Amino acid sequence: MTSSLKYGFIKEPRWIGLAVLLAMIAVGCVAFGIWQFDRRAEAAQKIELLEANWDAPAKSWDAFFTVPETGESNATQEWYDQYRWQSVTLQGQFDYESAVTVRNRFQFGEMGKIWLVPFTSNEGIVWVDRGWLYPDDAIPYNGPGQNVTVVIRATPIEPKIPGRDDIPASGTEPASLASIHTEALSEVPDAINSMYFELVSENPAAATGTALAKPELDEGPHLSYALQWFVFALMAIFGYFWLVRNEAKALAAIDEAHQVLEPEIQDVQKELQNRYGR
What we know:
- The protein is of the alpha+beta class.
- It has helices spanning 13-53, 61-64, 182-185, 222-276, and strands spanning 87-94, 100-107, 110-121, 125-133, 148-156, 175-177, 195-203.
- The protein is built from four helices and seven strands; from the N terminus they run H-H-E-E-E-E-E-E-H-E-H.
- Helix 1 (13-53) packs antiparallel against helix 4.
């Protein structure tokens, strides 16, 4: 005789608590999975932006400084992420006397510094990264600034690093920055302080550091992580029903065993009554 499975026990407090706990775990896993999908989408957008902007023809100043969504003039020269890696052409002079370095820059498997120089044009003043140098390399001397035509690539500024101060210029060394932040770029009056630019080319050419290579971007493991989180959510849901099913089977087995043994128990009770009168 086989007892049918009964699930009334899931109304008990401990089973309600277990259901709530596993539901919360499943919801949390789904949330983490969606978050990983969002990170993957962001990485894909950066890759798309890199491929669109890195090798694109350089823009004029007015064409560069537009609001991406509207195409209107960006009069405040606010940073938009669509500017990243875009190139612009300018004519003007480098102010080598106001140059600074930015320390602790890891490139090409080595720690070094970059050489940051203000560039003055008729359109405005921008800071230009003239390349990467080893820590002990002397800053190249290019003499007084001459009129040059440059192609420079836009890069957003960085946050100021707490606890790491900029080092003022000495008699032989320019100022050393811990990061390229707004306050440092504002040391040159009227300079744009919402972004800086990396030197792509200049004519006529002068001494520079080593140009940075094109970033190697990939989507990372976000897709596999997202799928793992969804699998964990399914495991939580499946785990609840598996436990419920096993509990129901165990209760049914106990009930069936009781039904099988009940006649024998009754026979024993009758024998005791006949023997001892009780």
